[in-house]
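User: Some background: our group keeps a shared notebook of sequences we're curious about, and every so often someone picks one and asks for a predicted structure to add to the entry. Today it's my turn. The entry only has the sequence so far, pasted here. Could you supply the structure so I can complete it?
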Amino acid sequence: MSTDRSAVIWTRLHNIPRKMGQLYVTDKECRFTYDADYLNLDQPGLGLVYDPAYFGLNTISRKRSEKFNLLPPVQSLIPPLQEDNFQRNLALKYLNSIGKTGLSGFDADWEILKVSGRGGIGHLDLFEDDEKAEHWYNNPPVHQLHEVTDEFGFSLKEFMAWFEDDIEVLIQTVGPTPSVGGAIPKLLVSIPETGWDGRIGAPTRQSTVGVTDVILKFEQTNRYPGITELESMALDMYRNAGFDVPRHWICHFKGMPALAIERFDRDASRAPVFTETLYSIFASGLPNMVSHYDYTYDNIAKAINVSPVRIVNDATEGKEHLFRCVIMSLITGNGDLHLENLSILIDSDNVRRFTPIYDPTPMRAYSQHDMISVMPFGDYGDIVDGYDKPIGLTEAVHRFSAHCGIRKKQFNAIVSELLDKTADYESMINQLQTVPDANKERLIKRIADARKHLGVMLDGEKPQR
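Assistant: Of course. Here's the predicted structure to add to the notebook entry:
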């Protein structure tokens, strides 16, 4: 016999903890109802699709599925169900330490949510009940920064290989800390506001002077050798090309390469900022969506234009940003620009816009991710009506630019600028110290091909079909 589950959703927007509403999960569906007092605040709700102004006191319900047992914005608080997922294993090890063992499937998801479903990326905090929420908000620990030294008495290298016994030491030092999903091990911690100096602390829960919150991304050297150095270079290149990019620092944590990236989902006072991935947004409105690459860039542009849910305030600016992101991904070798790597935030002026750039790593350097794009655009590779051959890259870019409303003069200006800003990319790749030569050679070959195709379009030749 199944047992219904319940929890509460709170938020700390504007640094004031408030209950957002009540969550129920039955064997067939997930339901959420906004709290009446929250509706009077004129604040963002669970997500863009679940607008409090639209739903009011009406219960939001969604049938449970293999992919989504919960409403997408809530589901995003859970580390992915993958056997080797660092964040999930960290949470399960903590649950084991408090006597909750043998968990699997949604039972594990639910227990993970109850102990770590707050303080994560974005503005949503989940608790078992209101009493636990009030205690968590009202009793933040005194913030302390700890030196990362051998005195911790454990080896993070062993821990990351899932052989660490002394998990309590990490829990006491940085948590129990929320985490974020993805293939690369990540933790949410805080560091000095001036930048990485070898000290870390728990993520902030209140206005805290002198620190900033970061995502600490550890390098899995066996699987992705040199990825820390590669991502840092990519972030620098994006900034040079005019994109909004968070501060970041290459560092070493217990002898392991890592990258600390400043969180843009926290404001200057360390209060949460509404942030939601495009995956959560589109999955909320499209019940049949099953993965974070189950869409096209063209359809993102269309949604920005015509969706009944306002995704960004300035549609023209939003589509241009999307176009620039896709072009930049092509010419830097990042084939992994999926829906979870594109997000929307609502700033202090209540403006909806794309977040700063994150996860721009040139993943084509690694054979297991060597694809031109994880998501389709411009019918690339397909045979469509009126064509007797598959759509080539230049034609696909041309078709995608039309969906973004980019005219020829603007197209030439954007592509020329990005090609110019990345002109020394090959030289930068060759200077990397930790990326193997074979990976460098693969990446250089891929970006040379993409640059050639885009250069042809600038020269005025007819797009290749």
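Suggested note for the entry: The domain at 293-458 is CATH 1.10.1070 (Phosphatidylinositol 3-kinase Catalytic Subunit; Chain A, Domain 5). DSSP finds 16 helices and 14 strands in the chain.
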